[in-house]
Automatic annotation (TrEMBL):
Record flagged with keyword Ion transport: yes
GO BP terms: calcium ion transmembrane transport
Subcellular location: Endomembrane system; Membrane
Membrane disposition: Multi-pass membrane protein
A GO MF label: purinergic nucleotide receptor activity
Pfam families associated with the record: P2X_receptor
Major location category of this protein: membrane
Protein name (database record): Purinergic receptor
GO CC annotation: endomembrane system; plasma membrane; postsynapse
Transmembrane segments: 44-66
Protein source organism: Marmota monax (Woodchuck)
Keywords for the protein's UniProt record, in alphabetical order: Ion channel, Ion transport, Ligand-gated ion channel, Membrane, Receptor, Transmembrane, Transmembrane helix, Transport
Family in the record: Belongs to the P2X receptor family.
């Protein structure tokens, strides 16, 4: 491919480059804006809230709607024996 340019005297010149492979031309256009902390914090907060809702929704689907819900409930929650049954911290006094 070739790169065309004009030197200081105004004469048009080119540089030929022998290259192999695929050439990607990326064109970017748009409107630049000034950074503002308020919309940034709103976007971060709403993203975190969305992750929280997604976690709750996945838990509801897995623990109440799937065929293996008892298996997943057993793995998700740890059940503790009652203190009165003697498993809750006797020190041998």
């Amino acid at each position: 491919f070739a790169k065309y340019y004009r030197d200081l005297t105004g004469v048009e010149q080119r540089t030929l480059i022998k290259a192999y492979g695929i050439r990607f031309d990326i064109i970017v256009f748009g409107k630049a804006g000034k950074f503002d902390i308020i919309p940034t914090m709103i976007n971060i907060g709403s993203g975190l809230a969305l992750l929280g809702v997604a976690t709750v929704l996945c838990d509801v689907i897995v623990l109440y709607c799937m065929k293996k819900r008892y298996y997943y409930r057993e793995k998700k929650y740890k059940y503790v024996e009652d203190y009165e049954q003697g498993l809750g911290g006797e020190t041998g006094q």
